[in-house]
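User: Study the fold:
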Amino acid sequence: RGYGYQAVGPLDAEGVPLGGRSVVEGALETRARISQRIQLAAFTDAGVISPDAFPSFDRTVYVGAGGGVRYLSPIGPIRADIAFPLEKRATDSDFQIYISLGQPF
């Protein structure tokens, strides 16, 4: 979270995602219940995508951080998050907004 869709992997000269052959990623998230159905969350995500078969840590590890709200519905949590890129490049937005259903991981 914090970067555009497919924006942290290898790109061609025009900025089009090429995909990768390996990925290492991790996330930390903490939640605090403020009512029976509402939670607040804070998170940090990090990852690196490499065109090589094994992860290459000579590439930038992209880190994003943010927070959100969880509504604990009968069918699962409905999540609204805002995330910020901590390794921001000129082509990255200042923030990303995510709306989703279910657990993040």
Residues 22-101 form one domain.
